[in-house]
């Protein structure tokens, strides 16, 4: 079984709920991004990073700082992306995923939810958590 890090930032609690569903399925605990750093990447086999859309469909700046520091350390380890949004179309996820892949991150999936994660999003998160833990 893989050791999975589920790292998130949440403003309204929606992305935190997503992180908890994914972490439970992966057999781990979700951790806030402020408690994670790039020097911890070697301790894990797989990752899920979650952040809601902020402002003009972008990542939170504090989250992005930790994410950017981790990108070069992932190597070929699988990384899932997730988050919630309230307005817009979810474009921030497409932008984030493309930038991650361009940087060489092994993105194995992405999951978004409009506001609270619905049953479909929760099912996808649980499936992703199980997949990352394999």
Automatic annotation (TrEMBL):
Mind telling me which residue stretches traverse the membrane in this protein?
A: none
Q: Which InterPro entries match?
A: Flavodoxin/NO_synth, Flavodoxin_CS, Flavoprotein-like_sf
One Pfam entry for this protein is Flavodoxin_1
Q: Which residues form the signal peptide?
A: none
The family database entries (SUPFAM superfamilies) matched by this protein are listed as: Flavoproteins (SSF52218)
Q: Where is the Flavodoxin-like domain?
A: 4-133
Q: What is this protein called?
A: Flavodoxin, short chain
**Native source organism of the sequence:** Parafannyhessea umbonata
Q: What is the lineage of its organism?
A: Bacteria, Bacillati, Actinomycetota, Coriobacteriia, Coriobacteriales
């Amino acid at each position: 079984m893989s050791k999975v890090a589920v790292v998130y930032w949440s403003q309204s609690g929606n992305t935190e709920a997503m992180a908890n569903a994914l972490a439970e399925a992966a057999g781990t605990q979700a951790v806030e991004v402020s408690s994670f750093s790039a020097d911890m990447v070697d301790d894990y086999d797989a990752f899920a990073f979650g952040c809601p859309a902020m402002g003009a469909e972008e990542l939170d700046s504090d989250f992005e700082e930790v994410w950017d520091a981790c990108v070069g350390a992932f190597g070929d380890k699988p990384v899932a992306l997730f988050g919630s949004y309230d307005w817009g179309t979810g474009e921030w996820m497409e932008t984030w995923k493309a930038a991650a892949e361009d940087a060489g991150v092994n993105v194995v999936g992405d999951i978004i939810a409009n506001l609270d994660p619905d049953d479909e999003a929760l099912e996808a998160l649980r499936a992703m958590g199980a997949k990352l833990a394999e």
